From TrEMBL:
Its main location: membrane. Belongs to the bacterial diacylglycerol kinase family. It comes from Rapidithrix thailandica. This is Diacylglycerol kinase family protein. Pfam families: DAGK_prokar.
Amino acid sequence: MKNYIQKQAISFSHAFRGLIYMIKDYNSLIHLPAAIIVVIFAFVVGVEREEWYWLIAAIAVVWIAETFNTAIEKLVDLACPKYHPLAGKVKDISAAAVLLASIFAVVIGLLVFLPYFSDWVYPL
């Protein structure tokens, strides 16, 4: 049992190391502040529980896509240190997944926040 717990602890330490790597990554300079702003704004306007679900899901999808994108890019760099058109396509497709996830997140954000914003602009 002790051996199992040690293996699990090591696995979690690797996962947390990867998470820290992701947070320090250049692209996180965009995603992390955006996620923080969304969460703060959601608290300020008082979004409903169901809207929180959508916002959290949208943030998670972007981070998951960015995580896979970073992993794929690092793997392609390792496998193909010199430029190759196919490697470039793989990286572009991987980045497109992040773009699609980000567009999805923006749409969700607009659907959630626009009614609150319109209440501020046009109070009843």
